[in-house]
Amino acid sequence: MLLSLDLSDPRPLHEQVAGAIRRSIAQGAYAPGDRLPSARDLADALGINANTVLRALRDLRDEGLLEFRRGRGVSVHRLPDTKSVLESLARELLEEAERRGYGKDEVIEILKELP
């Protein structure tokens, strides 16, 4: 699982990790029933605390995307619905636009101009 974090992103790290895992699953990197790497392995790969990764995994479990099994680790329970993935991406777009000085209405106008 190739995940990356943007340290300049003002969102909490656990939200960034959850979003990256959600997108990875939505893009087909993992299917229902597939095991994810351990929280420690993910944390080491991202250079963050394992508790941060565990919080992200718990959030995704609470959404119903992941399943925790004692002695078997964390696996994908179901695929995220496309609307929630798009909403997450739209939020990220609006946050990035705001950091660059654009408002929501300006972003909408830019999107309307796209072919």
From TrEMBL:
<protein>
    <submittedName>
        <fullName>GntR family transcriptional regulator</fullName>
    </submittedName>
</protein>
<dbReference type="GO" id="GO:0003677">
    <property type="term" value="F:DNA binding"/>
</dbReference>
<keyword id="KW-0805">Transcription regulation</keyword>
<dbReference type="InterPro" id="IPR036390">
    <property type="entry name" value="WH_DNA-bd_sf"/>
</dbReference>
<dbReference type="InterPro" id="IPR036388">
    <property type="entry name" value="WH-like_DNA-bd_sf"/>
</dbReference>
<keyword id="KW-0238">DNA-binding</keyword>
<dbReference type="Pfam" id="PF00392">
    <property type="entry name" value="GntR"/>
</dbReference>
<keyword id="KW-0804">Transcription</keyword>
<dbReference type="InterPro" id="IPR000524">
    <property type="entry name" value="Tscrpt_reg_HTH_GntR"/>
</dbReference>
<feature type="domain" description="HTH gntR-type">
    <location>
        <begin position="11"/>
        <end position="79"/>
    </location>
</feature>
<dbReference type="GO" id="GO:0003700">
    <property type="term" value="F:DNA-binding transcription factor activity"/>
</dbReference>
